[in-house]
Amino acid sequence: MIRQIAHKKYGGKKNKILYRERDYHGTTIATLAAGGQHERSAQYGPFPEGFISVPHCLEYREAAQDNLGQGESYGLRAANAIEDVILREGPDTVGGLILEPITAGGGVIVPPEGYWPRVQEICKKYDVLLMIDEVVCGLGRTGTWFGYQHYDIQPDIVTMAKGVASGYAAISLTVTTEEVFEQFKDASDHMGYFRDISTFGGCTAGPAAALENMRIIEDENLLENCTARGAQLIANLEALAEKHSIIGDVRGKGLFCGAELVTNRETREPAPEAKVQAVVKDCMAQGVIIGATNRSLPGFQQHSVPVTGADLYGRRYRPHHRCNRSGLKPSLWLILPKPD
Ligand SMILES: Cc1ncc(COP(=O)(O)O)c(C=O)c1O
């Protein structure tokens, strides 16, 4: 879309797409090119041109190293770093910015205060379309229908998939504002429509499952439940952090939470992979199923943990299918940066 709009409106020039370090958007060649997890894209090159990275906004790691300020002050600095990239590249060459509302596989990065409003402001200022990737956060994972709704922003394009039908059927969507969509319409041009086609486009099974999934989410008040259970999950994780010094940081929203594991809280030295795997194994032995992400960032080993056992809720066990039923899969991610 960004590329077609660039051709239609800007003589092809405003075609660059900015993406953020640590974010992930998929494994096709363009989405890998827009991916901020370099161990995932390694050995897939060469990549298409025009994908430019902007810095991540993980305060826990960055603020400690570079004394960049804290809270809102850090959030503004992290957002302003995007403006720096736009100015460096030339605003007339940058068409879009793609971001996860809360970075998932890159470390459950809940953006700091002040970050999102400033990002929106920057996008408006330079006429850069804001694309939000809701593939993980969308459809209730964080307690709102979409992750971006926590931040009072208005994206131009939103993508979503996984939770749309709770994984029971394959479905993905790209949604735009009317304003973006209208830009594709031009009766005087035989190329004046959004040109896209795919094998499963128009297949009705996914949408049917999605509509039923959304009905269940509404009827069973699962967004409210996600918020309430999520608050419990975070509180329990914070209580665990008081007992276990290996937990360096707890982050998340709703039922999408993570814990970053360290060997030393002062230095924030990352815990070794074997230790994290031991935590995963121990949780499993206690009926709490947690998983681990694959290696994705150079020098960083991350472990993501979808939780299905319900000790975190104060109960002993909850059947897996129940937790998964409406896309509101509780998840806990353990983050293990791997030292060189
Ligand atoms: C945030 C995010 N975006 C996009 C994708 C890619 O989705 P797909 O594998 O359906 O292309 C993923 C996959 O995990 C993801 O986590």
Describe the protein in words.
The protein has 340 residues and is an alpha/beta fold. It has 2 domains: 2-217, Type I PLP-dependent aspartate aminotransferase-like (Major domain) (Aspartate Aminotransferase, domain 2); 222-336, Aspartate Aminotransferase, domain 1 (Alpha-Beta Complex), CATH 3.90.1150. 34% of the residues lie in helices and 17% in strands. The chain is built from 11 helices and 11 strands. It has helices at 2-10, 29-33, 38-41, 59-66, 71-89, 115-125, 178-182, 205-219, 222-243, 273-285, 320-324; strands spanning 16-20, 51-54, 94-99, 129-133, 157-160, 173-176, 247-253, 256-264, 269-270, 301-305, 331-336. The strands form 2 sheets. It has a 6-stranded mixed β-sheet, sandwiched between helices. The radius of gyration is 20 Å and the shape is globular. Residues 301-330 and 336-340 have low confidence and may be disordered. Pyridoxal-5'-phosphate is lined by residues 24-26, 100, 104-105, 133, 135-136, 161.
Radius of gyration: 20 Å
Share of helical residues: 25-40%
Instruction: Work out the strand percent.
Output: 15-25%
- Uncertain stretches: 301-330, 336-340
Number of helices: 11
Give the full name of the CATH homologous superfamily of the largest domain.
Type I PLP-dependent aspartate aminotransferase-like (Major domain)
Strand order of the largest sheet: 2-1-3-4-5-6
- β-strand number: 11
* Main β sheet profile: 6 strands, mixed
Q: Regarding CATH, which class of the largest domain? A: Alpha Beta
Number of domains: 2
Tell me the series of helices and strands, N- to C-terminal.
Answer: HEHHEHHEHEEEHHHEEEHEHE
For the record, give the distance between the C-alpha atoms at the N and C termini, rounded to a whole number: 39 Å
Q: What is the mean predicted local confidence, pLDDT?
A: 86
Name the structural class.
alpha/beta
Small molecules held by this entry: pyridoxal-5'-phosphate
CATH architecture of the largest domain, by name, is 3-Layer(aba) Sandwich
Shape verdict: globular
